[in-house]
Design a protein that fits this description.
By secondary structure, the protein is of the alpha+beta class. The strands form five sheets. Strands 7-6-10-2-1-14-17-16 form an eight-stranded mixed sheet. The two termini are about 35 Å apart.
Length: about 625
């Protein structure tokens, strides 16, 4: 067998032209739990001329899905027992975390044949918890990244006086990455605190790992000290949720300062009549904070209630007829609406397209409403809120991602950032596509959301829920939607606008909960009460409810409407179709808002399957 192995090594040397004739590792453990590693490498370059060798060492260990820096320091390197030029660098590997490289040699000098390299360094964080009785020291003596054969390996392990062959347990593993093949009978004790062993004939990519179980309380340091979180991690672990809650409260307070409405309004009484000196188009802008094409129909009904038009809605005839009533008392946008329906002195509108007239109508309504009811432009108020919110969010996001980096390594931190950014872009694209009614965009956005949402599985694979809440995903998934939600309800109203807004809320509240007895009392005061309120019932999306009440109580038709009341919704839909082509162009209006409408790694280089510190590999250059 030895002859066969020797022949195999000769063949390998012929193929690769380089080999390691002798690899000695001396590992000294001190009473503080640190180790000093000295590697003697007799490297044979053969007939090749090279500048020297490089030595790659992983500087991370993995423990319960956490990535811990082993604390490599105090590196000393010599060539043939003399000082030598060398450069230290590092990079992030998807397999082994952070890799430190010692590039030994001079770019201006070439060497050949046999040379002896001495590489020494110290490790401060290597002990890990094992169970309630032991800590463990796992060290990859020979890494699995050497591409050339190693003929002989000698290992010396020196322990502090508190440890000896009676109170420790030793296992040695040899093989390719992940191998669990143990080496049983190679240990030789030099004295009670010092043992060594020899091995031969390592193939390329074959490694060697030692595991030593150490009794707790013997050394001044322990595995718990290695895995103890930095202060910022411990702080974030206990205060992340409270910080997120405080941030959400801040968002509400800041949005209220800018002009938050909707779900965060104060208590208000019911109102039984519409606000005076305001049209339904203006009311829609104040109530929803934007122009909505569907609000044109309530404005048309308002003209009917006030006697300016009649609506014909029979099985065979569907049109709107203009009356001869004087229009001097109408607002400018009401006059423009009439002109849009009945251009050039026409008196009949048969639901032909009025889409080209809608944007100017919205602009007129905006100018009037802005002067009366708003402190500033809604878009500017929303942008100011977003800027403040995103600024604070960015700081918290950076802290959260840095903590993720400290705990779980760069891969998880990077995946977290990519997930948050891509998912945010996908959601924004979905919202924009819905507003523009771009079905292809909606389909692709939904597909992207599900695709990037699946990236969570990369982060949470065999990971506890605790890891999830320590990453930026929890922060982002709770605060970003809440910021967008609040933004949708920011309407910077002045005092007059607030009075109108809460008046409209009170009117909606009454329409929604109106009882028959109260309506009968109001009808005694105003026989036309039900039709006077109808435009606002439709504005609030409560038309079916109100029409049903009208049928139960009044049981009569409106003087300005010829047709079944239940069919009013059909006219609304038909009219809305005429405005539909310009829905996307209305996004450029003064009061545009994106709010929704009222429609409803383990350490590389070891051979032990549990991982360990050290290892890596090297080669020539």
């Amino acid at each position: 067998m030895p002859k066969l192995l020797l022949f195999y090594l000769v063949i390998l040397n012929a193929l690769f032209g380089e080999s390691i004739e002798y690899y000695s590792v001396e590992l000294s453990l001190d009473n503080m739990g640190e180790i000093r590693v000295v590697e003697d490498i007799k490297y044979n370059f053969g007939s090749h001329q090279k500048h020297g060798i490089f030595r790659d060492i992983p500087t991370n260990i993995k423990y319960q899905n956490r990535v811990i820096d082993i604390g490599l320091y105090d590196s000393i390197i010599k060539l043939d027992n003399r000082d030598v030029e060398w450069i230290e660098s590092q990079w992030d590997s998807i397999y082994g975390g952070v890799i430190k490289r010692f590039k030994i040699g001079s770019k201006d000098k070439l060497i050949t044949k046999r040379h002896n390299y001495n590489i020494a360094y110290s490790i401060s964080n290597i002990l890990l918890p094992y169970d309630n009785k032991y800590d463990t020291l796992r060290w990859n003596l020979i890494g699995t990244k050497w591409k050339i054969p190693i003929e002989r390996v000698k290992v010396n392990i020196k322990l502090p006086k508190s440890l000896n062959h009676n109170n420790i347990k030793i296992k040695i593993f040899r093989g390719g990455y992940g191998s669990t093949r143990e080496v049983d009978d190679s240990i030789e004790w030099i004295d009670t605190n010092h043992f060594s062993f020899f091995l031969h004939s390592f193939e390329p990519y074959e490694g060697l790992t030692i595991e030593i179980l150490l009794p707790l309380g013997v050394l001044k340091s322990s595995g718990k000290d290695t895995i103890r979180d930095p202060f910022i991690v411990r702080f974030w672990r206990y205060f992340e949720i409270p910080i997120i809650i405080l941030f959400l409260i801040y968002l509400i307070i800041e949005a209220k300062k800018v002009g938050l409405r909707g779900y965060f309004h104060h208590s208000y009484p019911p109102f039984y009549s519409p606000p005076i000196d305001i049209t339904t188009l203006q009311a829609g802008v104040i109530f929803y904070g934007k122009n909505r094409n569907q609000d044109i129909f309530p404005a048309i009904l308002e003209l009917g209630v006030n006697g300016y038009i009649d609506i014909i809605n029979s099985n065979y005839k569907k049109y709107i007829q203009k009356n001869s009533k004087n229009i001097d008392t109408l607002s400018s946008e009401q006059k423009y609406l009439l002109k849009s329906l009945f251009p050039k002195d026409k008196t009949i509108y048969k639901f032909t397209s009025i889409s080209t007239k809608v944007t100017p109508l919205h602009n007129k309504t905006n100018r009037i409403t802005y002067k009366k009811a708003f402190k500033e432009k809604i878009k500017e108020a929303k942008n100011r809120f977003i800027l403040k919110s995103i600024s604070i969010f960015t700081v918290l996001f950076i802290v959260s991602d840095y903590i993720t980096y400290l705990l779980y390594g760069e891969d998880t931190a990077t995946i977290s950032v990519v997930w948050v950014v891509t998912l945010s872009i996908s959601i924004y694209a979905l919202i924009s596509s819905i507003q523009s009614r771009m079905w292809l965009g909606i389909i692709f956005s939904i597909f992207a959301i599900f695709s990037f949402g699946g990236m969570i599985s990369l982060i949470l694979e065999d990971i506890s829920f605790q890891k999830f809440i320590m990453t930026p995903i929890l922060l982002s998934s709770t605060t970003i939607p809440f910021i967008l939600f609040l933004r949708a309800y920011i309407h910077p109203l002045n005092n007059y606008g607030e009075d109108i807004y809460y008046h409209l809320l009170g009117l909606k509240k009454f329409i929604k909960k109106a009882d028959t007895n109260r309506l009968k009392e109001l009808l005694l005061q105003n026989p036309n009460y039900m039709e006077d309120i109808l435009p606002y019932a439709i504005l609030f999306g409560l038309n079916k409810h109100w029409i049903k009440l009208n049928s139960e109580i009044v049981k009569s038709k409106y003087s300005w409407y010829d047709g079944e009341l239940d069919n009013l919704s059909l006219i609304s839909t038909q009219l809305y179709i005429q405005t539909k082509p310009i829905i996307s162009s209305s996004s450029g209006s003064l009061f545009y808002s994106s709010s929704s409408s009222s429609y409803s790694s383990s350490s590389s280089g070891g051979s032990y399957s549990g991982g360990g510190g050290g290892g890596g590999g090297g080669g020539s250059w």
